[in-house]
Amino acid sequence: MAERFDGKVVLVTGAGSGIGRASAQRFYAEGANVFLVDINAEGLADTMVQMPDSTRVHSMVADISLPEVCHATVTKTVEAFGQLDVLCNIAGILLTGRIEDITPEAWQRILQVNLTSVFFLCQAAVPQLAKTRGNIINMASTAALTGQAYSSPYGVTKAGVAMLTKSLSMELAERGIRVNAVCPGAVNTPLAATANFPQDATPRLIDKLISFYGFAEPAEIASLVAFIASDEARYMSGSVIPIDGAQTAG
Ligand SMILES: NC(=O)c1ccc[n+]([C@@H]2O[C@H](COP(=O)([O-])OP(=O)(O)OC[C@H]3O[C@@H](n4cnc5c(N)ncnc54)[C@H](O)[C@@H]3O)[C@@H](O)[C@H]2O)c1
C-alpha cells in the first residue's frame, strides 16, 4: 500500500529524543527518507534502532545553534537524498527560573537554540523547498500563546517562532512553500522533566501549565506533525496550532 510520505525527504532536528524522535519515527513508518539531526549522538542512535532500512535514514550529530551548521544540515540532506520536502524544526531547550536568576549566557543560549536556529534552518531550506513545493513545521509551544511564569526567555523564543512562522508563510506562499507551527502543552519528554520551578513558586501559576488531560505523549504530537506535513493539509499555511488539552482555551 502506498504511504503518505513515500519518496519524500524529511529533515528533523531534535530527532534524538521526545517529540523529534516520535515525529522522525512516524515519517519513517509512513515511507519517508529521514535525515535526523541532534546534538546528542546516543539519542540519535536510539532513534535509529527502530529504522531498519538504512537506505532511508541518515543522521548528523550537530549543534544547530550555529547558522553555518544549519546550512550544513540542509546541504547534507540534499547530498544524501537529492531533495528536501519537509523541514521539521523540533530541537529545543527549556529554561526555567525567576527573572533574577537568568544569566546573560543562558538567555543567549536559549535564543540561539530555540529561535536563531529555526530562522537559519528555514533560510537554508527555502531554495530546496521551492523545488519540491515542500513545507516547514516549527515546534512552538503554548508558551507562545499565553504568558507563562518562571520561563519568560523560553516563551519569548516560542513567540518568535510563531511570528516567524506567520511571516514566512506569507513571504513563501508564491513559491508554494507552506509554513506552520505546532504549540504543544505539556508533553511527556525529558525536556518537560527538566522544568525546575522556584521552590516558592505560586502554585496557581504552575497549575495553569497542566491540562485536565494531564500530559500528552510525543506520538500524539507526531500525529499532528505528520498530518500538517502531508498533502492532506494543502490549504494549511501560516497556522499556529495549539495541541494542549484545552490548556489555553479559556
Ligand atoms: N515537552 C513539552 O512539554 C513541550 C511542550 C511544548 C513545546 N515543546 C517543544 O518541543 C520541542 C521538542 O522538545 P521535547 O519535549 O521533545 O524535548 P527533548 O529534550 O526530549 O528533545 C529535544 C531534543 O533537542 C536536542 N537539542 C537540544 N539542543 C540542541 C542543539 N543545540 N542542536 C541540536 N539538537 C539539540 C536535544 O538533544 C534533544 O534530543 C522543543 O522545541 C520544545 O520546546 C515541548
List key phrases describing it.
7-stranded parallel sheet; about 250 residues; Rossmann fold; binds nicotinamide-adenine-dinucleotide; 8 helices; alpha/beta; globular
Describe the model.
By secondary structure, the chain is α/β, with parallel strands linked by helices. It has a single domain, classed as NAD(P)-binding Rossmann-like Domain (Rossmann fold), CATH 3.40.50.720. 42% of the residues lie in helices and 14% in strands. It has eight helices and seven strands; from the N terminus they run βαβαβαβαβαβαααβ. It has helices at residues 18-29, 41-49, 67-81, 104-132, 152-171, 190-193, 203-207, 218-229, and strands spanning 9-13, 33-38, 57-61, 86-89, 135-139, 178-184, 240-243. It has a seven-stranded parallel sheet with strand order 3-2-1-4-5-6-7, sandwiched between helices. Strand 2 (33-38), helix 2 (41-49) and strand 3 form a beta-alpha-beta unit. Helix 3 packs parallel to helix 4 and helix 4 runs parallel beside helix 5 (152-171). The protein is globular. The termini are far apart. The structure holds nicotinamide-adenine-dinucleotide. Nicotinamide-adenine-dinucleotide (NAD) is lined by residues 13-14, 16-20, 38-40, 43, 63-65, 90-93, 113, 139, 141, 184, 186-187, 189-192. Nicotinamide-adenine-dinucleotide is lined by residues 13-14, 16-20, 38-40, 43, 63-65, 90-93, 113, 139, 141, 184, 186-187, 189-192.
Summarize the topology.
Blueprint: E1 9-13, H1 18-29, E2 33-38, H2 41-49, E3 57-61, H3 67-81, E4 86-89, H4 104-132, E5 135-139, H5 152-171, E6 178-184, H6 190-193, H7 203-207, H8 218-229, E7 240-243
Parallel strand pairs: 1-2, 1-4, 2-3, 4-5, 5-6, 6-7
Helix pairs in contact: 1-8, 3-4, 4-5
The chain binds nicotinamide-adenine-dinucleotide.
Nicotinamide-adenine-dinucleotide binds next to α1 and α6.
